[in-house]
User: What shape does this take?
Amino acid sequence: MTTLPPSEFTLVVRREPTTLTVHVGGELDYDTSDDLVDAVTENLTGDQTPPRAVHLDFSALTWIDSSGLSALLMVHRRTSTLGATLHLDNRPDVLERMLRLTNVLDHLTGPATAREASGSEGSGGVTGAGTS
Assistant: This one.
């Protein structure tokens, strides 16, 4: 029996004045999830004005585990705090299944509730999140 090596994890970040796009490739798991959170956080809190939209492009994602899901929740928290809209683009089946099984798809990609939008939980003026 042959065991295939894990896919190389890659992040390609493109920052424009109002949009941050991060292309995620390979396996988003325990070993790589902090890299995603750090890359997004760095680009949200850098010298520039925070972007209005954050697109995570998963067209090259091959695997995600619970640590990867936790990273997505943290990215959502960070983008929401700054009022940026999070988009989960080109979701492969493995990600789609994870989001549906854990029932967080609507949380990550749905519109903000009135409570979130008012900032009553210290969300810093969260706006709705969307899908692409």
Summary: Residues 66-81 form the longest helix (16 residues). Helices lie at 33-44, 66-81, 93-101, 105-109, 114-118.
